[in-house]
Amino acid sequence: MPHFAYRGRNDRGELVRGTxxxxxxxxxxxxxxxxxxxxxxxxxxTGPAADSSDGWWARLSxxxxxxxxxxxxxxxxxxxxRSGVPILRTFSGLQESATNAGLAAVLQDIRxxxxxxxxxxxxxxxxxxxxxxxxxxxxxxxxxTGRLEQVFLLLFNHLEFEKEIKDRVSQALNYPMFVVxxxxxxxxxxxxxxxxxxxxxxxxxxxxxxxxxxxxxFSAFMVDYWVSLLAGTVxxxxxxxxxxxxxxxxxxxDRFKLRxxxxxxxxxxxxxxxxxxxxxxxxRSGVPxxxxxxxVAQTVDNAYISQRIGQMRAGVERGESVYRTxxxxxxFTPVVLQMIAVGEESGELKDLLSEVADMYQKEIEYxxxxxxxxxxxxxxxxxxxxxxxxxxxxxxxxxxxxxVGRGR
Length: 408
What we know:
Number of strands: 3
Strand content: 5-15%
Oligomer: single chain
Largest sheet: 3 strands, antiparallel
Order of helices and strands: EEHEHHHHHHHHHHHHHHHH
């Protein structure tokens, strides 16, 4: 069916816009009136995201839906549905109370889709940037089993766990990244402004220490070719970004991140904790094992681990046990493998996977507390070497000049 872009006013007289799917403009008008919107203008659009009355700037400048907004939405949806509020009234209330303009627009579109007779998971699938495939699949299971309010609670707990992990990792990396950035800026300033001033002082000397010659040569190179260096840096960043977006580049980069000293093990544990939590949630919601692995593989946010989970899914499809496929994957610790084996044998795999996620989370918290203590010595050593090189290169010739003066 074709899509139509509309403008109208809601019950409070506010101007609303959106895009809906329908047989003709008359059917669209009926849908809008049933949802409490008085249509002002209905035109044919090219797709769900196309709105002839909204320019490209409006579509680009719309507020992005953050993880915090989705966590709050999941909790509110669970509370309203558990209280017996009909689903249409639930999404109408959530739209009116939403503080994020992007989420409000999404909820409005979902409400119109529900009013048109679509299932909730189908309406959510129209917004892949907001609702992941895992989220939509869980909602679909909730609709099929009649446990939608419980699924929203499980999704709330899962997203809150995701947010906590991301916040802790970001908080732990703020200080090291700040120090590295300051050191880089200081290095550029020294080479562009400080060392050239000393170069004029040493210009008349026939012999200079090797360290001084290296510093003067590097500084002269930066002064003469700073435009090329800047362009090369920007080009390198853009090329790296383009490479990471490719499937091969994303796989290689995600695999490399797991091998980074100190930080790699934290990334691995966070990824596996996300997998265990999502897998436990899917199994607890009644999703079959193979389908759970297929969906969860796309939620771990790491192409390398996702490929390993895909291998596990293929092994389970062939009739192998989860323990054997997990052992073949080569990413789980022996303790976790033992817990998976016990859970599979006792039929409590979903509960033990939840315990695996909790265990990984505790290990991540411990590692993050010690992260600064592990990185600080490396930064201090690097900074000390940098200061030593600058001191030897700049002050050795001055010291030689002083010695010659005293000798005279």
